[in-house]
Design goal:
Blueprint: E1 6-9, H1 14-22, E2 27-28, H2 40-50, E3 54-57, H3 65-70, H4 72-93, E4 97-101, H5 130-150, E5 153-159, E6 161-163, H6 176-189, E7 194-198, E8 204-205, E9 207-209, H7 210-219, E10 229-232, E11 238-239, H8 240-251, E12 256-260, H9 275-281, H10 289-303
Helix pairs in contact: 1-7, 2-4, 4-5, 6-8, 6-10, 8-10
Length: 305
């Protein structure tokens, strides 16, 4: 295997599949049947056998609010164990740069908006997704500790809420955009007079098209920007009400919108400050929200079922 090989975990997932398409060969994409990331010995043996130059760790046990609330134990244990196995094995092997793909859920519930990277350790994350967020946040601490003791080279990337073709549209795993698209399509097809949306609609989100995120992640692999944290955001904070309206326009659903404040809506505000990524990486989101929603909707129509 070439000493420039990139190893990508989670290549079968939403973000991972887009990374796989964008990364150059030689590329290692072990699936769960090839490599159990929950087994440290298996990870260590895999790195010894293949000796990649870079690992992009995009694998995880992930999903929307419903999955987080149903499986808080797995959220913290599986995500923490997978990440620790990767970075510890890489540190002990030596000569491997690790890019950890994190989550906006690492940030405190009451973080300032737009949120800079320096806010990560300044409070407890939003309760609905806290266990996932704390697992991912701990991986940054572990990267820094392993850097100081063993010389691990790392980059730690925090994309905002991602969406796009290939996203998870099933009810248990979907995030806000695919969940809204699927429900709007079903409401339209069933001639439903109303569409019920979780939360009161005042919550805000920073939505980043998946191809933009891929460009940002790959940019963090440059040697001159290593051992640092980078937010990847869209520079647009949109309310759930605005997002729902755009989705309904794309789907052409004309029914009444009902907001159910008794259902969890997640963190009240989310938007990332991407100034560092702009300065150091030249990163800037290119896909407009309406354009991205249209592409995602078209993909869903062609691939559902």
């Amino acid at each position: 295997m070439s000493d420039q090989a990139v190893m990508l975990t989670g290549s079968g997932g939403f973000l991972g599949s887009h990374l796989k398409s964008a990364l150059p060969e030689p590329l290692l994409c072990p699936r769960s049947t090839d490599l159990n990331l929950l087994d440290y010995g298996a990870v260590e043996r895999y790195l010894h056998q293949h000796s990649p130059a870079t690992i992009i760790h995009a694998a995880g046990f992930v999903g929307g609010i419903g999955l987080n609330k149903a499986h808080p134990g797995r959220m913290i244990s599986d995500n923490l164990r997978m990440g620790l196995n990767i970075i510890e094995a890489a540190a002990h092997h030596g000569g491997i740069h690790v890019c950890v793909v994190s989550t906006v859920c690492v940030y405190p519930h009451d973080a300032s908006v737009p949120t800079p990277e320096t806010s990560m350790y300044q409070g407890y994350p939003a309760d609905d997704t806290a266990f996932y967020g704390i697992a991912k946040r701990t991986l940054h601490t572990a990267c820094e500790g392993l850097r100081r003791e063993f010389g691990l080279s790392y980059s730690y990337v925090i994309p905002t809420n991602l969406y796009g073709p290939g996203d998870y549209f099933d009810e248990k795993r979907s995030h806000v955009v695919p969940a809204l698209i699927r429900r709007a399509v079903e409401a339209k097809e069933n001639n439903a007079p109303e569409l019920v949306v979780w939360g009161d609609g005042t919550q805000t989100r920073d939505l980043l098209y998946v191809d933009d995120a891929v460009r940002g992640i790959i940019a963090t692999l440059k040697p001159e920007v290593r051992n640092d944290i980078f937010n990847l955001g869209s520079d647009r904070e949109s309310s759930i009400r605005e997002i729902v309206s755009l989705v309904c326009d794309v789907v052409d659903y004309k029914g009444r919108l009902v907001y159910d404040a008794s259902k969890p809506g997640g963190a009240p505000r989310r938007a990332l400050d991407s100034t560092k990524a702009k300065t150091a990486l030249g990163f800037e989101a290119k896909v407009d929200l309406a354009q991205g929603l249209e592409s995602t909707y078209r993909w869903y129509l062609q691939n559902r079922g």
